[in-house]
Design goal:
alpha+beta; 6-stranded antiparallel sheet; disordered C terminus
């Protein structure tokens, strides 16, 4: 088993920003997010070369992630609980929502008016801290 090497590799690559690494709030399979196919190929090669881990990536039904904030902690908690199967945390343990399409995201934005959907963690004012 090379699960420890895989975990270490994904954690380090996520922290350095080579790729977004998401941990689902429900389930155990890690999810990777990237801007394009080349990023996935680079990460696959780096996991093999630097960590000795062969990986096989499979396509997800999700097409985008949005970091979420709420008008209040209660609003954000309610949104998270209602969409638990689509909620993930990133390398900085920041909450994000996964959408299947631009249309899906627009529907959620209209339905949840007290939730802000940010395209980047930095846009949400949520920066990686050294804790």
């Amino acid at each position: 088993m090379r699960s420890k090497q895989l975990q270490k590799g994904l954690t380090e690559l996520g922290e350095e920003g080579a790729i977004q690494v998401f941990k689902p709030m429900m389930g155990s399979e890690m999810m990777l997010g990237a801007i394009g196919q080349l990023q996935f190929e680079v990460v696959t090669a780096r996991l093999k070369g630097e960590y000795g881990v062969d990986v096989r990536l499979t396509t997800s039904r999700y097409t985008c992630a949005r970091w979420v904030t709420g008008s209040s902690a209660a609003d954000l908690r309610h949104f998270t609980e209602a969409n638990l199967n689509r909620m993930v945390t990133d390398a900085a343990n920041t909450v994000a929502f996964l959408a299947t399409s631009r249309f899906d995201l627009e529907i959620m934005q209209k339905k949840w008016e007290t939730i802000q959907f940010h395209p980047m963690r930095e846009h949400a004012g949520l920066l990686l801290s050294n804790k």
